[in-house]
Amino acid sequence: MEKGFFEEVLATLENASRFLNLPEPIYQRLRRPRRSIIVSLPVMMDDGSVRFFTGYRVQYDFARGPAKGGFRYHPKVTLDEVTALAALMTWKCAVVNIPFGGAKGGVECDPTRMSRDEIKRLTRRYTYEIALMIGPEIDIPAPDMYTDEQVMAWMMDTYSMMKGYTVPGVVTGKPICIGGSLGRKTATSQGLVAVVCEALRFLKISMEGLTACIIGFGNVGKGCARILSDMGVRITGIADSKGAIYNPKGIDISAVSRHKKETGSVKGFGSAEDVDLDELIGKEVDVLIPAALEGQINSRNAHRVRARIIAEGANNPVTRDADEILKEKEVFIIPDILANAGGVVVSYFEWVQDLQGFFWSRDEIASRLNSIMKKAFKEVVDMSLDKGLDMRTSAMVVGVKRVADAISVRGLYP
Ligand code: GLU
């Protein structure tokens, strides 16, 4: 039986803390979220009925700065999941060394079965209910699964209406015309591709004839597919929540995007074979990018993996049990808190630009993102070589140490 998500995160924390020999009170502090809120949200549906949704926001840690993290709409959102994701955000911000703590939020709902107006009313009510807990100096939400820049615009507007003035820095991932940053939409994919390139260099794998498979065809998965295929990488497999496709000769990303837009899935795309997810996971490939929901590579299918590198676009896509199997197979893992940190890095740029009211060019953003990702990759690899740690533990050690140092130097209040 695989563990609960937060339990999984705590197991990784325990490894890192043991390695760092953290004092017990600091370790205990890191095992607990600072603040969690559960809100019930009455929303008027289009047919005039009122439905109640449950929403959450967990602020895991503030030691290094305001809490930061995405906000998702999904039927599987629970307090356990949001807490685990908030903890991951804490280590993620620390690994890439940006001055934030970690947070996450979500509402249990099925956004695919709701109208845009219903989502708008849900977003506004959720923002109102958590308004006391968020703000540019407290906690800054951002897009995550099934939340986009329009949802961020509604959040920013609701918060600003309550304040009586415009507060662009309360959320990131907004539309450009209200203080969003250039490059935010593609930031996670761009950051992921940057660390994949570093990993290839480190492992001395040539770009020539390189292949990649992508699980998840949302913002992150599609973005990675686009960037990699523009670089000449052959995308041989793609999966989404409804099915998977495979073509060893490569898949045309623009054509499959159009197909998904028309039919709702990559499935049934003419020039590739329909396969199931486990079959796709078992295909020989250089880089496998899980960029969908948590736990997609697990003890049930990990033994099938034939990839050389797994770059975790999603948060916690590989369970701890699967990790052990992959270790034996010597798969090089670029863990989530490093691989998908590009999104929050450009969120940080957006927040800085909002606070200053001074905006940067696309090139400035791309080059700053690239250098942060490269530096973080090097720090994690160096730690792993130096101390003989696997990449996941090493990334955790780098991140957790920064958070623990901040807690320790600030001391216990009162
Ligand atoms: N939702 C993204 C993540 O999981 C981005 C968070 C942010 O930009 O604050 O990293």
Helical fraction: 40-55%
SSE pattern, N- to C-terminal? HHEEEHEHEHHEHEEHEHEEHEHHHH
Q: Evaluate the radius of gyration.
A: 21 Å
Shape designation: globular
- The CATH topology name of the largest domain reads Rossmann fold
Number of helices: 14
What descriptors fit this protein?
2 domains, single chain, 19% strand, 414 residues, Rossmann fold, seven-stranded mixed β-sheet, 12 strands, alpha/beta, binds glutamic acid, 46% helix
Walk me through the structure.
- With 414 residues, the protein is of the alpha/beta class.
- The protein folds into two domains: 21-167, Rossmann fold (3-Layer(aba) Sandwich); 187-339, Rossmann fold (3-Layer(aba) Sandwich), CATH 3.40.50.720.
- 46% of the residues lie in helices and 19% in strands.
- The protein has 14 helices and twelve strands.
- It has helices at residues 5-20, 24-30, 79-95, 116-130, 149-163, 187-203, 219-230, 253-263, 277-281, 320-328, 336-339, 342-356, 362-387, 391-410, and strands at residues 35-44, 50-61, 67-74, 102-108, 139-143, 211-215, 234-240, 243-246, 273-275, 284-290, 306-311, 332-334.
- The strands form two sheets. Strands 9-8-7-6-10-11-12 form a seven-stranded mixed beta sheet.
- Helix 3 links the parallel strand 3 and strand 4.
- Helix 1 (5-20) runs parallel beside helix 3, helix 3 (79-95) packs across helix 14 (391-410) and helix 6 (187-203) packs across helix 12 (342-356).
- The structure holds glutamic acid.
